[in-house]
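dumping this here so i dont lose it
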């Protein structure tokens, strides 16, 4: 059965089930079984380009979608579909429970709007970098393999607190000092411009000509990597591996209390939002 056919029937089926039939367990309510079937297929097979590059399925983003919909249910369950439908209703979308391109686009818009840098870029502003003398260097214990990582003082303090909390609360992070260590922070415009020329990939996906790293508020954190890939590889297989890790899932659940938000296309990329509130 095609995606559109499944989705076209979901609202009617849900209406027949009624609110009284809804259960909170992941296995129900039965009215969301068609949406669960859609999600089970779409998670791996949906062809879309949410960040300007063709992708197959939204499995990479499943933890972020679940977090947004406030559910711990598996993506192929009726409970997950019910939670998505609730989110769709709040977002003024048809509450069918399937994560289709329109639903993902709406979620992505919310994620992006939480990034102050994106709001500036939407206004055609490329923020000026801070004076490098005003930056601080992260301690070696919080830096990946000897990397010299510099950030604005507030961002650095918040990051150090977040890394310390993660190492207390995530066994894998506590056991591996490289996990969640920072491998990139402030990058000056001249440095990024030189990388654009050398690598020829400033396409706004792999690398941007006006990068959030110029603000001194963006940091890249080591989440490990799939076999054969670098920690900052944007290959779908690597990103899927990273978003499946306990460290990434801890960040999704907890980074906000330290003021950090994620750029969903890059699991390792986090931006501090507290500068304007200090």
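and the seq i came up w/
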């Amino acid at each position: 059965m095609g995606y559109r056919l499944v989705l076209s029937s979901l609202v009617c089926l849900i209406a027949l089930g009624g609110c009284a039939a809804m259960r909170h367990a992941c296995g129900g309510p039965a009215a969301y079984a068609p949406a669960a079937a859609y999600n089970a297929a779409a998670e791996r097979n949906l062809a879309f380009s949410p960040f300007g590059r063709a992708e197959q399925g939204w499995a990479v983003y499943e933890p972020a979608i679940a977090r947004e919909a406030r559910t711990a249910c598996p993506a192929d369950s009726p409970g997950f579909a019910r939670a998505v439908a609730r989110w769709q209703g709040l977002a003024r979308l048809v509450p069918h429970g399937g994560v289709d391109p329109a639903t993902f686009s709406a979620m992505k818009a919310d994620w992006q709007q939480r990034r102050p840098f994106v709001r500036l870029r939407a206004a055609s502003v490329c923020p000026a970098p801070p004076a490098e003398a005003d930056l601080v260097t992260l301690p070696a214990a919080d830096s990946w393999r000897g990397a010299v990582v510099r950030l604005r003082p507030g961002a650095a303090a918040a990051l150090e607190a977040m890394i310390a909390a993660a190492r207390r609360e995530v066994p894998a992070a506590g056991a591996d000092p490289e996990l969640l260590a920072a491998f990139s922070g402030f990058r000056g415009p001249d440095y990024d411009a030189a990388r654009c020329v050398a690598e020829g990939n400033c396409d706004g996906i792999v690398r941007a000509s006006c990068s959030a790293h110029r603000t001194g508020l963006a940091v890249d954190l080591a989440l490990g990597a799939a076999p054969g890939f670098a920690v900052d590889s944007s290959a779908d297989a690597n990103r899927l591996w990273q978003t499946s890790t306990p460290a990434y899932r801890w960040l999704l659940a907890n980074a906000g209390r330290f003021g950090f938000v994620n750029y969903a296309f890059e699991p390792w990329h986090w931006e501090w939002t507290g500068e304007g509130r200090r």
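The first strand starts at residue 47 and ends at 48.
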